[in-house]
Write a structure and sequence with these properties.
The complex is a heterodimer of chains A (112) and B (442). Chain A has 112 residues and is of the alpha+beta class. Chain A has two helices and six strands. In chain A, 21% of the residues lie in helices and 37% in strands. In chain A, a hairpin with a 2-residue loop joins strand 3 (42-46) and strand 4 (49-53). The chains are: A alpha+beta (112), B mainly alpha (442). The interface between A and B is medium-sized, with 8 and 17 residues.
Chain lengths: 112, 442
């Protein structure tokens, strides 16, 4: 099993969710996060007082998937979340040691 | 001043009960004074409009500019200081400002409004036309309340609630009441000098702005000033407050005519157009300085225009008012974006940068726009230069008086309360530290 973490632009969330749904991904966890990469931050000015924020708002999508599906999930997210501009985000893939469905106690791929 | 005895509640027409109130012109005719119900209704409306400026207008305007953790403290300080001003006003403030006896600097008498009855009358600008004295007392009371609340804009986010209350009481007593007397009461120093101040540019705005600066310097900067992000937590609320201030300001300015007449109408149109010009010009100034036209810039311009037109409201034509508003926006913009960072003082919400500086622009500018050459209502008998000297003298005297009085009031508050919250409370926020509440629970 793989655990996929994607940091994407907030307004791309719906497209990513729809694309993954079409692929058969059954669930995901979404968190609003802040961070920075190569994209520059913004400058806010209040009556001349400048505050530069180098942390930009992003959305973190977490998906647990079977080993077979993982490459397609990564490719789908990459295509759906891309705007070809700096700041589109990153996708990380981790090995997932185990998964358990709390209601039934099922484990492994059956729990996904 | 001649002491006028109150003769009790006689039949209307026999009892000549005059207050020695502001703006008075000695009634020379023996005819019975007229209490016009239209005037009275307008002045009661104006009085409530000024209350709207304080609560919730100023409370939202200032509250939105502070950080989330200090929202309630800011609004509560404004509300409580205004309430204290009202109680003090009835106890002895009215007596000190408009009492039946006095000299050029202060008046006395009518403690706890002694002798005032529903039949008591106060003068207007027109011979023979009077207002119920209670209406005049209430109208002037709201001015005292908003002025002390304005001062607090420079000391929010770090001054103890108890210190605010002590400061407010002392400051009203030694700064506000004497200056109100000097400007508005017959026999007052500036009144007799012929200084033009239609609705209180000197008494309210220069006074509050200069006091705010002095108080901020004595109190010191907020922890993290210049390093931490201190962005306004809700410009939405600041915008709502700005709108309420503008609406309420019609009571403040047009109400200062004391009658529902052409002078009030002039003050009304000027309060529209000076403000509109200032709101636009501030945003243009931002653009020229290489920034974006901002919501806070719009709100700041609106206030700068309102402040500047206050002394000129009934003393200017609409064209003069537009010029005055535009100049005020430019000068205040420079004050808060260039002067403040250079001098390094922490006037948290720019009470000095907008009320003090805008008030000075308005007071001096009134001398110019009053002249018939600019469409003003002046008859040209006093030259612009001569009037400017008079205005400058009143401004200078107010600055000196406000500075000395504020120093005294701040050190009294420091001796009694310690003045400033602990570092821990300041970091956690005054809402929790001073009031035990949070503005937003979600």
């Amino acid at each position: 099993m793989k655990f996929i973490i994607a940091i994407i632009k907030p307004f791309k969330l719906d497209e990513v969710r729809e694309a993954l749904g079409a692929l058969g991904v059954a669930g995901m966890t979404v968190t609003e996060v802040k961070g920075f990469g190569r994209q520059k931050g913004q400058t806010e000015i209040y009556r001349g007082a400048e505050y530069s924020t180098n942390m930009l708002p992003k959305v973190k999508v977490e998906v647990a998937t079977s080993d077979d599906l993982a490459p397609q999930v990564v490719e789908t997210i990459q295509q759906a979340a891309s705007t070809d501009a700096i700041g589109d985000g990153k996708i990380f893939v981790l090995d997932l040691v185990s998964a358990t469905r709390i209601r039934t106690g099922e484990t492994g791929d059956n729990a996904l | 001043m001649i002491r006028k005895l109150l003769t009790g509640a006689g039949a209307i027409g026999t009892a000549l009960m005059t207050s020695t109130a502001a703006f008075a012109q000695e009634a020379t005719q023996a005819a019975a004074p007229v209490v016009d119900k239209g005037d009275t209704a307008w002045m009661m409306t104006s009085t409530v409009l000024v209350l709207l400026m304080i609560l919730p207008g100023l409370a939202l305007f200032y509250g939105g500019l502070t950080r989330t953790k200090n929202m309630l403290a800011t609004m509560t300080q404004i509300g409580a200081a205004a309430c204290l001003a009202m109680v003090i006003w009835v106890a002895y403030g009215y007596g000190l400002a408009f009492g039946p006896e006095g000299n050029a600097y202060i008046a006395w008498g009518k403690w706890f409004l002694a002798g005032v009855t529903p039949e008591s009358l106060a003068d207007t600008f027109s011979d023979g036309f009077k207002l119920p004295e209670y209406v005049f007392i209430s109208f002037q009371m709201t001015f005292a309340a908003i002025t002390v609340a304005l001062v607090l804009g420079s000391v929010v986010e770090r001054m103890k609630f108890a210190a605010v209350m002590v400061f407010a009481a002392v400051w009203l007593t030694i700064v506000y009441f004497p200056i109100a007397h000097m400007v508005w009461a017959v026999g007052g120093l500036f009144f007799e000098m012929g200084a033009l101040d239609f609705a209180g540019g000197t008494v309210v705005h220069i006074n509050a702005g200069v006091s705010a600066l002095v108080a901020a310097v004595i109190l010191g900067k907020r922890i993290g000033y210049g390093k931490d992000v201190m962005a306004p937590h809700s410009l939405t609320m600041t915008m709502i407050g700005t709108g309420m201030l503008w609406v309420g300001w019609f009571g403040f300015n047009a109400g200062s005519a004391l009658e529902a007449n052409g002078s009030a109408a002039l003050a009304m149109i000027n309060t529209f157009v000076a403000t509109a010009a200032a709101g636009l010009v501030w945003m243009v100034a931002e653009k020229l300085a290489g920034h974006k036209a901002s919501a806070l810039g719009f709100c700041s311009g609106i206030i700068a225009g309102l402040v500047a037109v206050t002394p000129a409201a009934g003393n200017s034509g609409p064209l003069g008012a537009i010029l005055l508003g535009a100049v005020s926006a430019l000068v205040c913009f420079a004050a808060v974006t260039i002067l403040k960072p250079k001098l390094g003082y922490d006037d948290s919400l720019d009470a000095f940068g907008i009320h003090g500086v805008g008030g000075i622009v308005g007071a001096l500018g009134t001398a110019v726009v009053y002249a018939p050459a600019f469409g003003g209502p002046g008859d040209g008998s006093t030259g612009i230069g001569a009037q400017l000297v008079t205005q400058a003298a009143a401004v200078g005297a107010t600055i000196v008086w406000a500075t000395i009085g504020t120093v005294i009031a701040m050190y009294v508050a420091k001796a009694l309360t310690g003045l400033r919250v602990s570092e821990e409370v300041e970091r956690e926020g005054l809402d929790l530290g001073e009031h035990g509440e949070r503005a937003y629970n979600y």
